[in-house]
Amino acid sequence: MVKNKSNRSSKLKKAGSQITSSTDATPLDDPADSDIPAAPPELQTTGQGQLGFPDRVYLLAATVFQNNHLEKPAAHRLVNYGKERGVPLPEVKDEEMQRIAYELAFNALKYQELLEDIMIDSCFYLTQPIPGDQMGLVAVILYDFQDRKFLPRESLGEEEIIQEVRDVESCLFRFKTKLAASLARCRIKHDLLSIEYILPESVKTKQERSSSLPLYTWVNPLKSSLDEVQSVLQNAGFLQVESIGQLEAQTFCQDPHCEDILVFPAQLKAQLYSTKLLSNHKLIIQDKFCSLGPNAVCSVLPEEGDVLMVGCFSGLTVYHTASLIAEKHKANCNSLPTVYVCVSDCTDAQREDLQQTVSAMGCKNVKLIRGVFQSLDGSDKQLQKVRVVLLTPKCSVSAVSNPVEFILQENGDTDLLQDLSQGSIGKNKLEALVAQQRKDIDHALKFPKVLAVVYSTCSSYPEENEEVVSRALEQAKARSEQEGEPKQANFRLSPSPFSSPNNAKGPEETDPFFMLEPSEHSNGCFLAVLTREPEPVVNETPQEVLARANAKGILDKINSNHPTRKGHHGHTNRMKKPAHAHTSQPHLSVCIQSKNQETKGSNSTTLCGHQEFTNRRQSSLGKPKALRLQALKNTVSSPLSSSKPESSCSSSSKLENSTLTKSIYPVLNTTTTSTTTRHPNPPPTTPVVRPRRAQQEVLKPMVLVLPPVHFPNFFPPQHSRTRFSPSFNYNKWRTPAQTVPLSRSSGGLSKDAMVKSRPLF
At CA 680, angle to CA 676 and CA 686, rounded to 5? Predict the structure, then answer.
């Protein structure tokens, strides 16, 4: 027996040496029989020095695999996994264990075809009586078994034992030699340096990028500031560099697009915890894509307005949005904008996690809405002040290199794991995603008071990005034209809110979309900002306003052909000035010559250019003295403007009359007598002040007091230049040649006229 065992060991060593000649050493027996060194530290997947995981992790991974595995047609089906799908997930409270379980299931999905070949080639599937509903558990344990180089799992101490897991593990361990041999034959057959080379090129590229993605963090504005965090990092030995390409060792840099994002090498997560920035919530670890939406919302949100968040996001994304808004409006604490979160698509566990995250951070301006987004509209009372909608719908996550971590952190759709494991999204599933995205963005554009919609995905398919946005704008435009209310849904693309410095790759300034291609520096993403166009400013004339109002029957057919106030005023000035100047010259002549006939002893004289007063005075001169006095009394007692048509001092010619009166004063060199107060004459150089058009004054009647007029002798004094005949008629005293002309340029009397109108006495 000892000899046989020795021969068997030598054969296994020889076989092991032949297999280890390839790139990856694949042990064919347990470590006691084959002198294989202990596993290197990088194979210790749990990070605690053990090889393997707890039973609960395998059970959760098996359930995820069972719900998402690729179901082949019956003619090509090699392994039967049973007919059960949608199996409830076992509860795993530890987030790290949950992530490891999903990663394990995702890797098993990626290598599903290879694992099935190993089970068939090693005769494990045909010889072991394992039920079909447990084949998912076989697949995940087999993947971990080969990843551990078929080494036994180390004990984790006081752990929960699940007998189902232990039974499957025992069966696989008994077949470990045949399983390892089958794996070796597959690699030789396909000439694989490692099993990663069997993956599609897109999946392999993402897997390589995921291992080198830097660590993205954002500064919590409610707990700290950028300067404070940078100071703490520098005191802890971190060195700040200029760009992401310079990250190495213990360094960090600022993101080129968002000022509040700091980037670190992936291996510095433990050192960041030592600074207590993460434990104190001053620095939050999150993918860059999750920070772009909140920053875009904060840039377009007006002073008074709320935000509505719709789609797939975590509590950290909600808190980031609320904290940025609170920091922006911190000066106006009484009216802090509210962030409404639509959680209709979230599970109960996700809602609870979101609420706990927001409450733990101390965020007070967040409110959850359980209603379906399609049922919400602008008539909801609590959404009356919503001005910006942040829409991050369910998408294919095709631009993310580490989809499992991203989906778990942002409450994504785990049903996408099977498609993502194969490197492409099925046509039917992609069409279903696009249809839902179109419904969401179309409904967001229907809110009448929303000023901007931020649409963001982490997809690399144009069908989910540019095409969805372009079609939504076309639909909104067609709907507004059909309804006849363009202002209800008139949106346009706005330039990207993120600047791209010279040392960073970014979208062109003319590109309305913000797009990042997946790379070793970051995941890919797409973002578009749709803003409502401002209402066009229509400069309507008063006639057009009246015509439009009359067309709707509002003003009861008021005549809209009247000239505007401005045009009417200008027209009045242009039409009345020449006529007034023409008719006022004889009046001025009569008043001036009447003054020449008065005695030098008169203390005051009343001046007026009114035709009615002149006619009454002229007609009273030929009557007896008693009649003349009675006529003068009637004239004085009656107001100057008894009626609007007969008054020469109307509102439209007030300016001309005031100018004319001021022009006569320096010529006559007299004063005006009123019933109460005697005012001195204004200086000759007093400028004429044009009253403002908006202020119209109602003219009041003026009482003129005339002094007694004495005519002792109709013959002029001896020094008068004018000769009169005995048959002098007062009404014929003025000749046309003696009319004093007005100066059109100054509105008063010309210089020649002033010389000719000197007093005759």
Answer: 130
pTM for this structure?
0.65
Beta partners for 340? 308, 367
pLDDT at 497: 82
Cα 57 from chain centroid?
44
Half-sphere exposure of 498 (CA within 13 A, CB side): 30
* Through-space distance between the first and last CA atoms of the chain, rounded to whole angstroms: 166
Query: For residue 497, which of 443, 452, 450, 460 has the smallest C-alpha distance?
Result: 452
Strands (E), 202-260: 215-219, 239-240, 251-254
Are the C-beta atoms of residues 409 and 314 closer than 8 Å to each other?
yes
As given in the structure block, the two tokens for residue 123 are 């005769």
Quote the DSSP letter at residue 448: T
Residue 51 is encoded by which pair of tokens? 């090889």
Q: Do residues 168 and 141 touch, judged by C-beta distance below 8 A?
A: yes
Which of the listed CATH numbers 3.20.20.140, 3.40.109.10, 3.40.50.150, 3.40.50.300 matches domain 300-532?
Answer: 3.40.50.150
Output DSSP code: residue 390: E
Selection from 585, 621, 588, 632 nearest residue 607 by Cα: 588
Residues forming the active site: 458
Instruction: Work out whether strand 366-369 and strand 339-342 pair parallel, antiparallel, or are unpaired.
Output: parallel
Counting as low any pLDDT under 70, the low residues of the chain are 1-50, 156-157, 332-334, 483-489, 499-510, 535-538, 555-701, 703, 709-761
How many other C-beta atoms are found inside a 10 Å radius of the C-beta of residue 213?
21
